[in-house]
Amino acid sequence: MAGIPPPSYYHPTSAPPSPPASNPPSPSPSPLPSSRHKPRRSGDLPPALAALLTIYNMTVRTYGPSAPEALSIEDFLWHNHFSQPPVFSAVHTAQITHGRDNPETIQALHSLARNLSDKQDFATALALYTICLSRETRMYGNSHPQTLRSMSGLAFAYQNVGKDEDALEMYERALGGWGDVVNVYTVRARINVASIYADNGRFEDAEEVLRRTVQEAGGKLGGGHESTKLAIHNLGFLLRALGRCEEAVGVCECGEWEDEWADCPLLQN
Questions:
Q1: Closest CA to 131 of 208, 241, 57
Q2: I want to staple 140 with a disulfide (CB 3.0 to 4.6 A). Which of 26, 144, 231, 249 is the partner?
């Protein structure tokens, strides 16, 4: 099974709306510890590749991934940008040996995209996930677990190059495909959706998504599961950043965080 995208932690960049003057002012959100925040690593694709990828996406949206127009651009995209560098050799060999849409070729492409994402080469990973997703859609359909995993991988790449709207759209497609299933992929996707909301000042939406995720993950995966803990931690950090430290401590119930939160003004009384 392919790995899931690494988690994305909150780092709200702006304070929530100021309260009415008649109420005592709330403390400004505290910066989250750097060890808890995975910074974005923006990277630009070469202009020719970026332009071709845009045309490819538009063609797939208009005609579908199996249309001759889409296949023609996909082949041109691959052979002109990904067939020569050594890092792509395993995928290129698989494609020559087994064919473009063979499961082994698709798996090799997915693994390479994931590997580049792990190395924070999100721009190249984005391009490869785009091709991979089209191939998986052709072979497996929109609701196959492999297709849905690539949707999440592509969404994570979009998120880390600053394309939040595209990331949200892709996360929503993936979550819609999973339906009522609760697993590590859906939990991580919702955590990242909440992260995007928080980064864009939609704190109430972020909190709502995280509370639901904590409840569902705890019920299906268990409170001790890594993904459940991650959702709880992110909810705690969000509440702390909004100055609601007592709530945050109540959510997390984690003594090991006491030193990290010692500077919270609401806990110093």
A1: 57
A2: 144
